[in-house]
Amino acid sequence: MKIAAQVLKFSRQAFYKWLAKPVSNRQSPEEEIICKIRQIHNDDPEFGYQFIADGLHGQGVTISEWHVWRLCSKIQVFSVSARRKPHGKKSGAPLHYDLLKRHFHADTANTAWVTDITEHWTGEGKRYLRAIKDLCAQKIVSYATGERMKSSLTVAALEDAMVKRGEPQSVIVHSDRCSQFASRKFRIALKVYGAKGCWEKVGECGDNAAMDSFFALVQKNVLDRKSCTSRRELSAANTHWIERTYHCKRRQLKLGKLTPNEYETTLKPAASLAA
Q1: pTM value?
Q2: How far apart are CA 50 and CA 65, in angstroms?
Q3: For residue 269, cis peptide bond before it (omega within 30 degrees of 0)
Q4: By C-alpha distance, which of 140, 133, 135 is closest to 100?
Q5: 247 by DSSP, 3-state: which?
């Protein structure tokens, strides 16, 4: 022990002090935060430090985004979708191709759906809304909200839509190229239900205009009219507007000035379309 202390240039007193308490008061809570960071990242590897920070805040951890970035850099935790590709390698083929080509109409129900995610602020923080629209009746067949923009949110909305619509086969599900729709969980869900994934082209934001226009209506008719103090209040406001106003009262020119619910009743053969 004495020789080792001389070689490593520390005193016996310092060694025994470290032996009694190998982790400092500062390191102990930091190690706990690092464990939480690893858990959040393992749950959704697409998360970068900003979403990880949101997840920590949701668990009641008070920490700045800069501090989360420093810890993520320290333990080499990065978003898998944000990592730079090695130079000299060509990117592979896209996971899905654009099957709609901006043709935002379908003659029959459950032929083509469009989907996207949007975020809104409340007094308690962010709330994410993921919705799916049927292009036949322009109806929102499913929507899900959450405090974190995880791939599980996209899967939950897809599963809800499939159950409500009787699990139709070969539905085109069009989305943008964000990591949640490229995730392994979502791709497995598409395969399980026999749906066809469909992506907008790179840099062509207009390819998902059908959903962008719907979210613009939500912003104008719900969020711009009232500031929500809680996430629950925002979710209730969204649900009320979609179910009571958009589906039942808002008449659309492309539907012959019918509402989405009225238009679905005119479809033949009459299908059992829930919600």
Answers
A1: 0.60
A2: 6
A3: yes
A4: 135
A5: coil
